[in-house]
Each structure stands twice: as C-alpha cells, then as structure tokens.
Amino acid sequence: MRIEKQGKVVKGLGGLFETRVIEASGEVRRYACRAKGSLHRGDAKVLVGDNAVLSIDESMPDDIVLSGIAERKNALIRPPMANLDILCMVVASAKPAPVLETVDKLLSIAEHHRIEPVLIFTKTDIDKENAERLSALYKGAGFTVFAVSSHLGEGVDEVREYLISNLKNGKTAAFAGASGVGKSTLVNRIFPSLQLATAEISEKIERGRHTTRHVELFEIGEGESAGFLADTPGFSLLDFERFDFFGLSDLLSTFRDFVPHLGACRYSDCAHIGEGPAECAIARAAEEGKLAPSRLASYRSIYRVLKSKNEYK
Ligand SMILES: Nc1nc2c(ncn2[C@@H]2O[C@H](COP(=O)(O)OP(=O)(O)OP(=O)(O)O)[C@@H](O)[C@H]2O)c(=O)[nH]1
Ligand SMILES: [Mg+2]
Ligand SMILES: [Zn+2]
C-alpha cells in the first residue's frame, strides 16, 4: 500500500529533492526522493519552496516518489523558487560595485509577484558612504532597508530580528543578488550554526565565482510555526538582460515610488519615457529630488526592452 505525506521542498540538487515533513507524531523528518516524470518539465518542474506530496510504499519505505505539488502563490525563474513571501535583494555597497538597474529589475519582478522586497546593503566596512547613499535612496522609495557589515557584525542583529519576526508559520524569504555580494556570509552571520561555504571574490575582476550552487531553505524556528530562509546562487549581470518576466502594461504598477506622482502629467497617456519635467510629473519629481533619478532611468530602460519585445512579437 502506498501512503501520502505532505511537506516542503527545501533543497533540490541533481534531480534529488529534499522534502521536510512534519510527521503525525510532530517529529520533523527530511525525505530525499526523485520527482515523477511529469514534474521534470516546464512550469511543472519542482522548485525549492514547493509544497509537495510524497508517495511512499509502506512495505518498501525507501520507495518514495515526489508525486505532486500544490498550487503555488508565485514562482520565480531567478532565484528558481516557489511560494516566496519576502525577497531580500542583497547588494554590496562596493566589491562588486552595485548595478542599480539590475537591482531595480529584481525589485520590479518581486513587486509583480506580490513578494515583499527588502534591500540589504552589505560590506558597509568597505564603502560606508555608498551604503548610506543607497539606503537613503531606497528608504525614500518606500522599501524596508538594512545596511550591514558581516565582517564587523554591524547591522546583523537588525536583519536577524526582522527575519525572525516576519518568518513564521511557513513564511519564506530568499537572499538574492549578484555573486560575491556576501549572501552566504550574511546567512552564516545571522545563523552561525549553518556554516555555509563562502569565497573570496577576485580582486581584479571584482566578480564572484558563484560559490553557492544550489538553492537551499533553512529553518527558522521549529515545527509547524517555523519559517524558512533561502540562500541562493548569485546571478551574473547577463541574467536580467533579456527582461521578459511580464508585459509592458504591468510595468508601472511595479514602481511603488511613482504612485504619489501619477495622474499629474500634462497628457493623460504619458508613458513617462521621453517627456521633460514640464510635461511629465515623474520626470519633474526626479528633477526636484522627490524621486531618485536612477529609478526613473531603470524604469525607462525596462520600458524600452518590454516595448521592443511587444513590437517584434
Ligand atoms: N569586507 C567585507 N567583505 C565581505 C562582507 N560580507 C562578505 N564579504 C566577503 O565577500 C566575499 C563573497 O562572499 P559570499 O558570502 O561567498 O558571497 P555570495 O553572495 O554568497 O556569493 P555567491 O555564492 O557566489 O552568490 C567573501 O570573500 C566574503 O568574505 C562584508 O560585510 N565586508
Ligand atoms: Mg553564496
Ligand atoms: Zn509622465
């Protein structure tokens, strides 16, 4: 006889999925198993964060198959995860130098999926000034922001407290960001028992070497009330070059800092793209320092990519 158990996929590596199950006894167990054929392809592909059904042969307890996944709240391509509640965008204040357009692209994707975006600026010990500038910029845009130095330990307690109080009862957050920004180092700092591998970045190219190679969820708290934090592999600059995560008509709603200025442009169909401050309220806000010019630049850049995609379809 086969029985079914439900649990959360906490790790996927080489086709083997680790699923965390709370047994009837209350004990937490992890089962490693493969997914059935139809869960290997396309949108049905199993992701870390999925709520899975395991089918177990009672007479042969080693015969376990991941036989189904529950409907998802959301799913991302990068990091490849399902059912995220919070996406912590980890950005180094220096080494590697931050690329705000990439940051804004990921924020936009999170907003589109109704995942709460949070910014964590790392390596404040290397460039405190830049960390302060970026923190002010994104706080001003309406985001929750943290600035930390994992080396000095500064700001780490605040991030830990935020995660512990926001990740309960299955709530899930991920650390995402470019390779080498210090995601794994910070996870280790927050939860020292984890001991994740981290690596020096190459001084010369200022680029990470992709030390973390798989997504893994770590438990915060215990049993039913536990939440999860994921460390994820860093992405490269090319990962968001082809921006095809949603359509042009959805773009504006993913820029929360534009909202207070909407409806005040001279033309009601203003796309906030090329118009100057006299016509466009968004351009005016950027000029008057009420909106970060880099946010407007990111918006315009994503707009152009989405527009050309729509035209050549
Ligand atoms: N100076 C300084 N260096 C840091 C800090 N945090 C991390 N680093 C260093 O940055 C390098 C990269 O750190 P990792 O934690 O491996 O970076 P990662 O974001 O996990 O990288 P991937 O796994 O490749 O995505 C290591 O040499 C760390 O010691 C910090 O707060 N200050
Ligand atoms: Mg890492
Ligand atoms: Zn406008």
What compounds are bound to the protein? guanosine-5'-triphosphate, magnesium ion, zinc ion
- Please trace the helix and strand order, writing H or E for each element: EEEEEEEEHEHEHEHEEHH
Radius of gyration: 21 Å
CATH fold descriptor of the largest domain = Rossmann fold
Distance between the termini: 51 Å
Number of domains: 3
In one word, what is the shape? Answer: globular
Number of helices: 6
> Largest sheet at a glance?
6 strands, mixed
What structural class results from the helix and strand content? alpha/beta
Low-confidence stretches: 202-206
Mean pLDDT: 92
CATH class identity of the largest domain: Alpha Beta
Residue fraction in strands: 25-35%
Number of strands: 13
Architecture overview:
The protein has 313 residues and is α/β, with parallel strands linked by helices. The chain folds into three domains: 68 residues, Nucleic acid-binding proteins (OB fold (Dihydrolipoamide Acetyltransferase, E2P)), CATH 2.40.50; 166 residues, P-loop containing nucleotide triphosphate hydrolases (Rossmann fold, 3-Layer(aba) Sandwich), CATH 3.40.50.300; 64 residues, Ribonucleotide Reductase Protein R1, domain 1. Helix content is 23%, strand content 26%. A six-stranded mixed beta sheet has the order 10-9-8-11-13-12, sandwiched between helices. The chain has a five-stranded mixed beta barrel with strand order 1-2-3-5-4. β8, α1 and β9 form a beta-alpha-beta unit. It is globular, with a radius of gyration of 21 Å. It starts with a strand and ends with a helix. About 2% of the residues have low confidence. The site of magnesium ion has 5 residues, from α4.
